[in-house]
Amino acid sequence: MESSRQEGAQGRQFDPNKLAGVLFDMDGTLTLPHQIDFTKMKERLGIPPHEDVLRTLKERYGDSPDEYARAMQIIDEVEAEGAAELALQPYCRELLAALRRSRPDVKTALVTRNSRKQAAHFASMLECNGASFDAIISRDECETLSMPVKPSPAVCFHLANQWGVSPEDCMFVGDFRDDMLCGKGAGAWTCLIENHKNQEFRELADLSVDSLAALARHLQLPLAAPSSSVHVDMGEGIGGGGVAVDVCVSSGSMKAVAG
Ligand SMILES: [Mg+2]
């Protein structure tokens, strides 16, 4: 059974009518939690469990570009392993599509510390039913823009400025401390997508929900019937190579979204 709270301990009352932009974290927020094996990533990099990966690598290899590149390659490999089996949160596509349909005035962004490649791969998975983002900010965009990654609020200020809206009228939706701090630092509303391991971050959230369907209710968005993505192996092709497509199924329609 879904539960949600209107306000966090330090929360600001959320007003959906004022909403001008929504920034979504990716891992554990729009995807199911724990798809990327951060324990394995840190073990391969020799980084203690409590340390921030990107910050530690910057500090450790700031003067050694070759070492830094080798470490980033390990991150790419572990992220790619997770992406191969990526599973969306229930109602992920429906929520994003409903935002587009019901609130075309609201801008949306994917904000992730993943690579540009993984962020683009994820966005391509959503291309059913009109689900899409106005902006995608991965760690590579942050690097290009000389902008610190989460938990810095820089990305909120950057996007609000780009969209011509106030950061206080935006919401950051995430599942981790860094997401909440990023939003709070800019004065944005914060929404925690709860799982069994992150409830300690509730106190940083204006809104805590346990599903994207519950978030949609707070945003006053009518959701369409859920779609499902089915990975289909098309078997041997003419040239002998197997062909696989992801088929998006919703309300009786099917659409191949990836080859
Ligand atoms: Mg996350």
UniProtKB/TrEMBL annotation:
InterPro entries, sorted: HAD-like_sf, HAD-SF_hydro_IA, HAD_sf
Name of the molecule in the record: Uncharacterized protein
